[in-house]
Amino acid sequence: MTVKDILDAIQSKDATSADFAALPLPESYRAITVHKDETEMFAGLETRDKDPRKSIHLDEVPVPELGPGEALVAVMASSVNYNSVWTSIFEPLPTFGFLERYGKVSELTKRHDLPYHIIGSDLAGVVLRTGPGVNAWKPGDEVVAHCLSVELESSDGHNDTMLDPEQRIWGFETNFGGLAEVALVKSNQLMPKPAHLSWEEAAAPGLVNSTAYRQLVSRNGAQMKQGDNVLIWGASGGLGSYATQFALAGGATPICVVSSPQKAEIARRMGAELIIDRNAEGYKFWKDEHTQDPREWKRFGKRIRELTGGEDVDIVFEHPGRETFGASVYVTRKGGTIVTCASTSGYHHEYDNRYLWMSLKRIIGSHFANYREAWEANRLISKGKIHPTLSKVYSLEDTGQAAYDVHRNLHQGKVGVLCLAPEEGLGVRDEEMRAEHLDAINRFRNV
Ligand SMILES: C/C=C/C(=O)SCCNC(=O)CCNC(=O)[C@H](O)C(C)(C)COP(=O)(O)OP(=O)(O)OC[C@H]1O[C@@H](n2cnc3c(N)ncnc32)[C@H](O)[C@@H]1OP(=O)(O)O
Ligand SMILES: NC(=O)C1=CN([C@@H]2O[C@H](COP(=O)(O)OP(=O)(O)OC[C@H]3O[C@@H](n4cnc5c(N)ncnc54)[C@H](OP(=O)(O)O)[C@@H]3O)[C@@H](O)[C@H]2O)C=CC1
Fold it and tell me: Whose Cα sits closest to atom 23 in ligand 1?
């Protein structure tokens, strides 16, 4: 039995759940990995010069043992997230430390502590096997998976599963991720694949869409409301392309920051009207490595006021971190919210706290999404209210190049990866609904 037989079953129109259940599992499969004995390979290099194409491997790996509450999924497509960039450049820490720590939780979690890390935190595919105790899913089900892995044994996480003390991001802090032909997930990560999307389109939103949903919309995040002005950094990137859609769909006004005319055009295509090209306008929030320039914060704030007709922003959707955080705190309206989920340009932020406390602003930390938020975010994709922002699709062999493009900010929206899917465009089950949304689905393609 090989993965080819699995693919044949997925592509045959009449394979039943029983047929999938009867398929023997392959012994091994192809997976994107980083290697534990290579974590020092970029020592001494600047972050920018660490090249994912050198650290990312395509290996043949054994199929992991299936445990209770888990599912093995044949992965048709996945996507590149920035967490895979972090893993591949071994920053801020090599992810093998996470696997070692997880390996100590139980006999079963020991499986994750390996000398190779199979990465990837998104997938669209077909359930192959479910472990004991799984009733909601069966072999043959077409699914996507969100990336929240929790043990749920502590009451700390029972109101909000992100607060579980054993909360991990699958494919980043656990092994057996989605950039592979087969993946191992907890069955609670599974959600129905949106029927109007191809495999690679369905695999694109998961991580960033759920994160933007919690960060901006959920009561655990900024609780955006109608009429809010929302400043969105990187509005045509992974997170920002969903934040922009949530702002527009929720009756708010996005102020989209981008760095090129092409990216401005994408933001416009999504329906945004207020756009700042940070490159063209030349903002320099730092005079040198240690000193910020408040005059530049003010120039940025004036530009926002020009665009909004004199209003300041109710919410800043933050993720660039060190480079922008001082400006983000400054331009937020009195009583407004800066909601942050990342620090791409550096995690030691500096801001003038007088502007925070005197103007009663709030900083909220946000990370991925709880089970329910991930489900709600996927439901919005399934209903055609929010659309994938897939720009380009790579083969599994070219994942290193895909991660390089994301690391160097050469991409738009989301970058997809075909795993078992032999070509793009397969897996659409609702052509009628697709036709209704085709322009929106293709907004980011070939820009
Ligand atoms: C969905 C996608 C998301 C993304 O893309 S996010 C972007 C990518 N992610 C990242 O860049 C984050 C990567 N992770 C990290 O950098 C690290 O992961 C953290 C800095 C988040 C945490 O560091 P650590 O060393 O793993 O954890 P500690 O909590 O500092 O634990 C170390 C020891 O310190 C103890 N400790 C924690 N808090 C306290 C406290 N308040 N007082 C005293 N001790 C404390 C712990 O218990 C533990 O101890 P013991 O080593 O013995 O187990
Ligand atoms: N905590 C969580 O749950 C999550 C955290 N993340 C983290 O969020 C960050 C962004 O992820 P994602 O959106 O997928 O990445 P992308 O690279 O797809 O998009 C980020 C965008 O931010 C803009 N940007 C990058 N650097 C700067 C800078 N120095 N100043 C201003 N803008 C900048 C760029 O847009 P432009 O050049 O057009 O301005 C870029 O396109 C990553 O660090 C990632 O690890 C992501 C998802 C979940």
Answer: 93
pLDDT of residue 1: 65
226 CA distance to ligand 2 centroid (A)? 25
pLDDT value for 179:
98
State in Å: Cα 4 to ligand 2 middle. 36
Residue minimizing CA distance to atom 27 of ligand 2? 320
List of domains in the chain: 3-209+369-442 (3.90.180.10), 222-365 (3.40.50.720)
Read off the amino acid at residue 243.
A
Phi, psi of 5, deg, nearest 5 = -65, -35
So what's the pLDDT on residue 447? Answer: 79
C-alpha distance across the termini of the chain, in Å = 41
Residues in the chain: 447
Nearest CA to ligand 1 atom 27: 98
If you measure from the C-alpha of residue 98 to the centroid of ligand 1, how many angstroms do you get, rounded to a whole number?
10
pLDDT at site 273: 98
Q: Looking at ligand 2, which residue's alpha carbon is closest to its atom 25?
A: 320
pTM (predicted TM-score): 0.98
What pLDDT, on the 0 to 100 scale, is given for residue 4?
86
The list of the chain residues with pLDDT below 70 reads 1
Centre of ligand 2 to C-alpha 256, Å, is: 13
